[in-house]
Amino acid sequence: MGILVKNSGNPDSTCDRSGQIYTCGIFYYFVPDMDSFENLSVFISFLMVLPVIYTNILEGIRQTDRKILEMAKVFRVNLRRQIRYIYVSQVLPYFLSACRLSLGMCWKAGVAAEVIGVPSGSIGEKLYNAKIYLNTPDLFAWTIVIIVISFVFEKCFLGIVSRVVYMIEHR
Q: Which of 144, 106, 143 is CA-nearest to residue 128?
């Protein structure tokens, strides 16, 4: 846990060197496969969401009650049980918050990446063509489609995540 919580020296910084190296490693791993722009929106969405989820989970670990950790140390609770019963229960609300924050940003970044990359058959391509050809009704229609799909997906995804969090907390 010490590596995850380590600070880079700046008291306002929430990222550390390992997070930066991890992100760069992911970037260099996926860039050669980006010859076609079909998966660009997924990759860009992932890169936009990663810092939010990482920062929230890191904050959840940092906010773990020190008295509970001290009690676990006194009663010699092994690391596996500490992670399961102390850290997971402390981090879950932060994870749920990160999911709520990330979903909207993920959709916006994904559609923006589709508009830039213009993969064939995508909503981004339809939006781009409507913009280029000044087809205002199509532009508004595709915008409404994006909003509706985003809203429905967000409700479904958060419902599933909330159920999983509830099941984990009440085991």
A: 143
Which tokens is 110 given? 């994904």
* Token reading at 75: 């009663």
**Residue whose tokens read 């509830």:** 166
Residue 116 has pLDDT above 60, yes or no: yes
Residue with tokens 């995508």: 122
Inform me whether the pLDDT recorded for 32 exceeds 90: no
Confidence of residue 3 (pLDDT cuts 50, 70, 90): very low
Tokens of 104: 């909207």
Answer whether 57's CB lies under 8 Å from 94's CB: yes
The Cα–Cα gap between 127 and 2 comes to 46
Q: Which of 155, 152, 130 is nearest to 141 (CA)?
A: 130
* Distance of alpha carbon 139 from alpha carbon 124, whole angstroms: 11
| Contact between residue 64 and residue 90 where contact means Cβ atoms under 8 Å apart | yes
* Residue linked to tokens 């600070």: 7
